[in-house]
Design a protein that fits this description.
The chain has about 550 residues and is an alpha/beta fold. It contains 14 helices and 25 strands. It folds into three domains: about 260 residues, Rossmann fold (3-Layer(aba) Sandwich), CATH 3.40.50.620; about 160 residues, Ribosomal Protein L25, Chain P (Beta Barrel), CATH 2.40.240.10; about 120 residues, Beta Barrel (Ribosomal Protein L25, Chain P), CATH 2.40.240. The structure holds adenosine-5'-triphosphate and magnesium ion (MG).
């Protein structure tokens, strides 16, 4: 069956929801329990957002619940800061785990007991090989592994050593506990995988109680079983681990048998979604922190001003499939624009100001003109903007020698200033180097409000502007792609960074209303894009970050078909 003969799915429908629907209809499960299982070794990124929307979404649509479970099995890499950030980010995205907050560390005692169950059944052993020896003996995809010389240890010796590992008698790395499965298994995950390693490190939750910690592979499936997870949803790279998870479940007295289903991870153009790489970007100072607005982290996306509804709409729009693919960046921006177009207040902001003196406008006069807050939302009303003899326009909106079809300001050319007047350029002032520093214009008092004059004269361009009398200077940060290449190489990420990922503009001129409100929501700076006030703002230097530009290449692509 080719893609085109497949039945079209309703939005919000996918193979996972089909499975859940049939499991509930067929009586295989009475309720659905999912979980989102982050390891607290970094901040969540937009790929995790896909998984969160899927797990919490499925649970709520089918009347079940979703657990938030920290897979906190490696205290060497895990920190309280990450635990707090993960909880904050899941909540911000709009999901609530209620009482269902769990940690793999809640189960350390039970997991330990179950490890002894396997030892007693002759299905686990303590191995004294070094890390290097174990690796050398693991074999390859084409060659079987070799049995460890310690594989034949007696149950009693294994129990004794394992208990002493727990008691902290041995240094880090001296021994491990391994499952005794099959060193010749075609699936390398079944070649006697490590269940416990010695690690003398304090744990954020269990302190110094433990000097051995379970591996992710050993802890994961049993944690699902303890929590009664019915549908254990994970990304495709775990498909090869499923036989191992099932082996543990089949050999242990677990209270339930979870089923794992794999879906494709999100890959987004111009973005690397790997906590390892994101950690490195932060540690090496390529970005200002986990919430740098260029970061694909939920914290960075939030700081950029993206509303959580838009991120959820993005997750719904990309769907859930079994085949890996890359998502066009325009798909991410599209729902942000759609939403902000409806909700954002319009303001005028001149990012690269060019001063204009209106010579026939009375000196010392200022007036207040009406400006509409949001043409998409009548209830948003209007505001006053200050007009006067000196204003700023965008440098780009003027050309001394206009190109063909350049209808904006040029010597002798007339334009409309939005909500204000028609103005015509009558002169240009330059500095010693020949650069234009100021324009001279005249205005037509009969066009007040930006209206057509009685003679019916038309202009072809409408410019935004800010009056010198009402302007507030500000810093504006234009956030661009962090990586220059649409498919950046995670192995060599530093070389792939976009040198222009952040443009900082200072001396931008904003109308007072853009700065006056303490609103956290993004605004539309007319003709520029959506911008949000940043927490780096100080009383003398308001700072704004661009959430997204106005151009929608996705909508255009769809319109063209
Ligand atoms: P990374 O690969 O970025 O280091 P991870 O998979 O190690 O992340 P976890 O904390 O283990 O991070 O992830 C928690 C859950 O989020 C897992 O179920 C994982 O499958 C899912 N997840 C991680 N990355 C993505 C992604 N890009 N798309 C969808 N789901 C993802
Ligand atoms: Mg992981």
């Amino acid at each position: 069956m080719t893609a085109s003969d497949m039945p079209a799915r309703e939005p919000g429908q996918d193979f996972i929801r089909d499975i859940v629907t049939s499991d509930l209809a067929g009586g295989r499960h009475k309720t659905v329990v999912t979980r989102f299982p982050p390891e607290p070794n970094g901040y969540l990124h937009i790929g995790h957002a896909k998984s969160i929307c899927l797990n919490f979404g499925v649970a709520s649509e089918f009347g079940g619940h979703c657990n938030l479970r920290f897979d906190d099995t490696n205290p060497a890499k895990e920190e309280q800061e990450y635990i707090d950030a993960i909880e904050r980010d899941v909540r911000w995205l709009g999901f609530d785990w209620g009482d269902n907050l769990f940690h793999a560390s809640d189960y350390f005692e039970r997991l330990y007991e179950w490890a002894e169950v396997l030892i007693k059944a002759g299905k686990a052993y303590v191995d004294d090989q070094t890390h290097e020896e174990m690796r050398a003996n693991r074999g390859t995809l084409t060659e079987p592994g070799r049995d460890s010389p310690f594989r034949g240890r007696s149950v009693d010796e294994n129990l004794d050593l394992f208990r002493r590992m727990r008691a902290g008698e041995f240094p880090n790395g001296a021994r491990v506990l391994r499952a005794k499965i099959d060193m010749a298994a075609g699936n390398i995950n079944l070649r006697d995988p490590v269940m416990y390693r010695i690690l003398h490190a304090p744990h954020p939750r269990t302190g110094t109680t433990w000097s051995i910690y379970p591996s992710y592979d050993y802890a994961h499936g049993q944690s699902d079983a303890i929590e009664g997870v019915t549908h254990s949803l994970c990304t495709l790279e775990f498909a090869d681990h499923k036989p191992l998870y099932d082996w543990f479940i089949d050999n242990l007295p677990v209270p339930s048998k979870p089923h794992q289903y794999e879906f494709a991870r999100l890959n987004l153009d111009y973005t690397i979604l790997s906590k390892r790489v994101l950690t490195q970007l932060v540690r090496d100072g390529h970005v200002s922190g986990w919430d740098d607005p260029r970061m694909p982290t939920i914290a960075g996306i939030r700081r950029r001003g993206v509303p959580p509804e838009a991120l959820r709409a993005f997750a719904a729009s990309i769907g859930v499939a079994r085949a890996d693919s890359r998502v066009d960046y325009a798909m991410f921006e599209h729902p942000i624009r759609e939403l902000l177009n409806k909700t954002a207040s319009r303001r005028m902001a001149v990012l690269r100001p060019l001063k204009v003196v209106i010579e026939n406008y009375p000196e010392g006069q200022v007036e207040e003109l009406d400006a509409i807050n949001n043409p998409e939302d009548e209830a948003a009303g209007s505001r006053k903007v200050t007009f006067g003899r000196e204003i700023f326009i965008e440098r780009d909106d003027f050309m001394e020698v206009p190109a063909k079809k350049f209808f904006r300001l040029a010597p002798g050319q007339e334009v409309r200033l939005r909500y204000a007047y028609f103005v015509k350029c009558t002169g240009v002032v330059k500095d010693a180097s020949g650069e234009v520093t100021e324009l001279r214009c005249t205005y037509d008092p009969e066009t007040r409000g930006g209206n057509t004059p009685p003679d019916g004269r038309k202009v072809k361009a409408t410019l935004h502007w800010v009056s010198a009398a009402g302007a507030v200077p500000a810093e504006v940060r234009l956030v661009n792609h962090l990586f220059a290449n649409p498919n950046p190489d995670a192995g060599n990420f530093a070389a792939e960074l976009n040198p222009n990922s952040l443009e900082v503009l200072t001396g931008c001129m904003l109308e007072a209303a853009a700065v006056a409100s303490n609103e956290a929501a993004p605004m539309q700076f007319e003709r520029q894009g959506y911008f949000v006030r940043d927490r780096d703002s100080t009383p003398g230097n308001p700072v704004f970050v661009r959430t997204v530009g106005l151009k929608d290449s996705f909508a255009r692509a769809v319109a063209k078909g």
